[in-house]
Amino acid sequence: EATTDQALSDLAQTGYDHLVGRAVAGQVSPGTDAPPSSGAETEILRAAFLVSRRSAADFVAEIQRFCEDHEDLRCEYSGPWAPYSFADISEEI
Question: pTM for the complete prediction?
Fold first, then answer.
């Protein structure tokens, strides 16, 4: 089990590194805290990427290629979304 967990962690990091290199910025979001039950799927990466409008189609194509290269995984993606994941609200109003 530890070997599988490490392999999934490595795959998630590889995917993130690949995609963030094609984005303006990226942010990993926490996944679910519930342990997977027998036969349940395991989420290995939940992330948001800040991508320029002119690069959006190429970025989606890159996600699709990554998913095709890893057809044993289920990949879900959506967007574009407002860049709220990258907003800095540390200043008082």
Answer: 0.78
Residues near 67 by Cβ (< 8 Å), separated by ≥ 6? 73, 75
CA separation (Å) from 56 to 30, 38, 63?
A: 24, 37, 11
Tally the residues of the chain: 93
Look-up: residue for tokens 């996600």?
A: 63
Tens digits of per-residue pLDDT, 37-81? Answer: 556 788 889 999 999 999 999 999 999 999 999 888 888 888 888
Distances in Å between the Cα of 5 and the Cα atoms of 2, 34, 57, 70, 71 are 5, 15, 32, 17, 18
